[in-house]
Structures are given as C-alpha cells and as structure tokens.
Amino acid sequence: MFIQSRLHAEYLKDRYSDWARGKHKGGNLYNERTFYQYFTKDLLEAEKEVIIYSPFVAKFRTDYYKRTIEKLMYRNINVFIFTRPVEDYEPIFQDQIRIALERYEEMGVCVFFLSRFIHEKAAIIDRKILWEGSLNILSHKASREIMRRTSDEESAMQVIQFLGLSNRLAEGYKFRYEKFCEGLKINSEKNRKLVIMMFLLGFSVSGILWLVITYMKYIQLLSLLYRMLAQP
After folding, report:
1. Pairing outcome for strands 78-83 and 49-53
2. What region, left, alpha or beta, does residue 126 occupy, with left being phi > 0 and alpha being psi -120 to 50 degrees?
3. Cα angle vertex 114, ends 171, 138, to 5°?
4. Which whole number is the average pLDDT over 77-103?
5. From CA 146, how far away is CA 132, in angstroms rounded?
6. Is the dihedral of CA 149, 153, 158, 161 positive or negative?
7. Is residue 145 within 8 Å of residue 156, measured between CB atoms?
8. Are 147 and 135 in contact (CB under 8 A)?
C-alpha cells in the first residue's frame, strides 16, 4: 500500500511538472491541467463559430472565460452554449447559476437550455475541431478528467447530429439575425432623431445669427442717424 501510494504521488508530481513547464505528452488526449490552455487557444483561433455543450455552469468559470469571450464577440464570432436550466440545480445554487448564465448572455452568447438531465460534454469549433470527454467545460474545478481533441470535420458534424443541435443552432442564428436587424432599426431611429435635432439646432443657430446681425445693423443705422442729427 505504501509503495502504491508513493508511486501514485510521483506520478502526480511528474504530471504537474509537465503541465507547469507547458508540455503536453498525451497526443490528442488532455487532462484537467492541460485542457484549458489548449482549449482557450482553439477558442481564440476560431473563425466563425464556437459551440459548448456543458451540463453544468459555475460563476468562477464564467469569470475565467470572460476575456476570451469578449475577444470572440469583438471579432463577431458566434458563440452558443447548451446547458441545463437553472431549475435542474439544487435551490441553494440557483441564484449563482442564474448570475453565471446572465453574464454569458450579457456578453452576447446565445444560451440554450436542454432538459432530460443532459450529461454529455463537448465543444465544437468552426465545425471542424471537436473536444469531447468527461470534463464539464463551464464548471470544472478540481476533479480528475480526460478530454480528447479531434481535428476532423466529419467527427465534429457527427457529434452535432448525434446531440441534435442542428435545429437549435438554426434557431440561434435566426435569433441573432433578428436581434441584429432590431439593432439596425434602433440605430436608424436614433440617427433619424439625430438628423432632426441637428437640423433644428442648425436652424436655431442660423436664426440667432440672423437676429444678431440684424440687430447690429439696426444699431449701426441708429448710430448713423444720431450722428447726422447731431451735426450743426
């Protein structure tokens, strides 16, 4: 038992040392220590779309992803999250979960809630890079996990079909399009009001200038008449 414990401790030490030095020796397999570094790299290199299928979310992970997602939003990358609804959590956790999900939505992420107590974990980037395994991407904290990275369009599309995400993604793109059009409409209305305000402001300024000039000419005329009358 002592030998087994010692060997396990040495294994964990070597595993941590490799991670700390930024090395990865698992081929296309990653553990809980190496996953986030390489997954974040894939996220930042996304060209069109990011899909994250994670049963659970946690506020501290939302904070962890915040800067990365903001960079994706700045580049107009579509980000979709599939997860459990708040009601699936114990009441004591629901407020924190609700805050975490609201933060994703505030950042521009399209969040879908799936029933049936989903437990699969996967992420698909540009429909050609697939991450799958045991790690809860949006909530993991300390447990031992394994994730596999596959760079293959067919495998990525197979998982999308298997999880039944096609229709939901279509809904997501429709929602984003409608929101975009609504934003254009609002901006158009704001621009129209701005044009009217600028016109009225310009008209007012012109009117004031005209009054000032007219008043000055009137004063000059009175001054001239006064000088004429004052002459002997």
Report:
1. parallel
2. left
3. 100
4. 94
5. 9
6. positive
7. no
8. yes
d(CA 69, CA 40): 10
**CA dist., res. 71 & res. 186, Å (int):** 25
Q: What is the pLDDT of residue 120?
A: 95
Quick: pLDDT tens for 47-75. 999 999 999 999 999 999 999 999 999 99
Q: Which long-range contacts (CB under 8 A, 24 or more apart) does 75-78 make?
A: 77/46, 77/47, 77/48, 77/49, 77/50, 78/48, 78/49, 78/50, 78/110, 78/172, 78/173, 78/176
Structural domains of the chain sorted by starting position, each given as residue range(s) with its CATH number in brackets: 2-164 (3.30.870.10)
Q: Which residues lie below 8 Å from residue 191, measured CB to CB, with a gap of 6+?
A: none
Residue type, 150: T
Picking from 80, 48, 57, 42, the residue whose alpha carbon sits closest to that of residue 167 is 80
C-alpha distances in Å from residue 15, one per residue of 10, 36, 45, 59, 167: 8, 15, 27, 27, 41
pTM of the model: 0.69
Q: Long-range contact list for 40-46, CB < 8 A, 24+ apart?
A: 40/68, 42/125, 42/129, 42/131, 42/149, 43/68, 43/72, 43/125, 44/68, 44/71, 44/72, 45/125, 46/72, 46/77, 46/125, 46/126
